[in-house]
Design a protein that fits this description.
alpha+beta; 4 strands; 40% helix; 13% strand
């Protein structure tokens, strides 16, 4: 079930419940019940969400790994034009961060589940 974040200062943001719940748990809130982020709480919330980049472990690099061989014509045909890549929680937080920043600039709260 999608969660819709709303603010009178900006448009709505729709997010899958699993992703919204993961972000809201970091903020001490829940996606299963209606909630609000008050303007006075927004600096703390933004600091927490911006801190996601510092909490993630660095991606290990293996300099000894050899590059993959180029695909043969038969293999190339089987590979789709693009491949799904995992999306980190930090990347999923970016639209919510923008929404909160805009709401903060407009001095309006952010609500969900209402």
């Amino acid at each position: 079930m999608p969660i819709t974040f709303k603010s009178q200062a900006t448009g709505n943001l729709v997010m899958l419940q699993a992703h919204a719940d993961a972000l809201l748990r970091l903020l001490g809130k829940s996606a299963t019940a209606p909630g609000i982020i008050e303007v006075s709480d927004m600096p703390r919330v933004l600091a927490t969400l911006h801190g996601l980049a510092h909490e993630l472990p660095p991606v290990p690099t293996d300099a000894s790994a050899e590059p993959d061989a180029p695909p043969t014509p038969d293999e190339d045909a089987a590979v789709p034009a693009f491949q799904d890549e995992p999306v980190s929680l930090r990347q999923r937080a970016a639209p919510l961060i923008r929404l909160i920043e805009q709401a903060q600039a407009g001095q309006q709260p952010v609500v969900w589940g209402v």
